[in-house]
Amino acid sequence: MKRALGFTLIELMIVVAIVGILASIALPMYSDYVTRSKRTDGQSTLMQIAQELERCYTQFSAYNDASCSVVSSGAVSQNSPEGFYSITSSTLTATTFTLTATPQGGQATNDTDCANLTLNHLGVQGATGINTAKCW
């Protein structure tokens, strides 16, 4: 008699189970990576706007000067380049500012660790959310 070549049903089920276990581990890790990479969109935009406000302070001796390119109607309000965050100024005076990055769309629902990112004129970085130690 000749022996049949191939895989048994048990062998195939074991392989499917292993692939399922690996996928169940990899998918949450990938989702977390995507969320953190989108968070950098908000962080970098906060830093960029803060630098522009510092330039305004150097030129006009005030953060809220109307000639400043990022100030509109006495406040800062713009979206990040990728559109994952909305940047606003919760405080904008001649000598101080506090910028807030609020997540938009899917980022708002996926990023529970860091709800809002903040940056002030002293360079102090802050955040709200469940695990703010991971935000910056």
Largest β-sheet summary:
5 strands, antiparallel
Which strand order does the major sheet show?
1-2-3-4-5
Order of helical and strand elements: HEEEHEE
* Radius of gyration, whole Å: 24 Å
Number of beta-strand segments = 5
Distance between the amino and carboxyl termini: 68 Å
What oligomeric state is this? single chain
Per DSSP, the total helix count is 2
Overall pLDDT level:
91
Describe this structure in words.
The protein has a 5-stranded antiparallel β-sheet with strand order 1-2-3-4-5. Helices cover 42% and strands 20% of the residues. The longest helix is centred in the first third of the chain and has 52 residues, at 9-60. The relative contact order is 0.13. It has 136 residues and is of the alpha+beta class. The protein has 2 helices and 5 strands. It has helices spanning 9-60, 106-110; strands spanning 77-79, 85-92, 97-103, 116-120, 125-128.
Question: Layout of helices and strands, plus pairs?
Answer:
Blueprint: H1 9-60, E1 77-79, E2 85-92, E3 97-103, H2 106-110, E4 116-120, E5 125-128
Antiparallel strand pairs: 1-2, 2-3, 3-4, 4-5
Task: Based on the model shown, name its key terms.
5 strands, single chain, rod-shaped, 2 helices
Task: Give a summary of the structure in a few sentences.
The chain is an alpha+beta fold and 136 residues long.
